[in-house]
Amino acid sequence: MSVARVRHHSDPGLQPERTSLAWGRTMFALVTVSLLFLRWLPVYGWLPAVLIVLTLLTAVGVYFSQRRRYLQGGEGIARGQVRPDAGAVLVTGGAVGVLGLLGIMIIVASPLG
């Protein structure tokens, strides 16, 4: 069954809504962190701009994959076979790890660090 023709599940409070809210919080946290990186610009030069762009791109990726995950969750409940989106979790976790390492590298490599 394609994602576009999803059968709706009977309980609107089930997993797809909770998962969608969790991904929304993740997206909001990424945008917040990108705003925090703005404070680094006067101190560390142009390098935090790279972190800002990467963080915002990760947040945009979460935003645009949100509907697909929601529809797949609803379809999985209707079929009785919900499968987690491990790829999205791994990619997002990897992106956050890389952003953290880059942030540490900027601090350590700077003359202030």
List descriptors.
4 helices, mainly alpha, 75% helix, 113 residues, elongated
Describe the structure.
By secondary structure, the chain is an all-alpha fold. The protein has one domain. The chain is built from 4 helices and no strands. The N and C termini lie far apart (54 Å). The relative contact order is 0.16. The model has no long low-confidence stretch (mean pLDDT 84).
Helix share of residues? Answer: over 70%
| Oligomerization state | single chain
Structural class: mainly alpha
Give unreliable regions as ranges.
none
Q: How far is the N terminus from the C terminus?
A: 54 Å
Largest sheet properties: none
Mean pLDDT: 84
Order of helices and strands: HHHH
Query: Could you say which overall geometry the principal axes of the C-alpha atoms support?
Result: elongated
Tally of contiguous helical segments? 4
- Record field, number of beta strands: 0
Percent strand: under 5%
